[in-house]
């Protein structure tokens, strides 16, 4: 009599023994002293809620801007505040002020890690 394969699949695969697979260190097990700047190049989305309300108003009023004055001004105020915050953040980054524990960009992280390098 043949045993169907579905009976064995329900239990899953047995785990492999760690003794059968020895650890091989391919790269050194330590962090690098630098961080790449790839993560900081992401896109910033500002005032998404206000933009959605503005587009909904424009759609309801057949894209006539004079009926959506309140929504337009709210979006412009939000965007102005966003740009002011972004300018201030860029100004502190360019000054090179490093405050550990806060959200640092890659340049500040690299500067901080140069002070305390990883032992070789």
From TrEMBL:
Superkingdom per UniProt: Eukaryota
Name the UniProt record assigns to this protein: IP05433p
* Record has Disulfide bond as a keyword: yes
GO BP terms: mitochondrial translation
A matching Pfam family = CHCH
Q: Which InterPro entries match?
A: CHCH, Cys_alpha_HP_mot_SF, Ribosomal_mS37_met
Q: Does the keyword tRNA processing apply?
A: no
Domain (CHCH): give its ranges.
47-80
Alphabetical UniProt keywords:
Disulfide bond
Q: Name one GO cellular component term.
A: mitochondrial ribosome
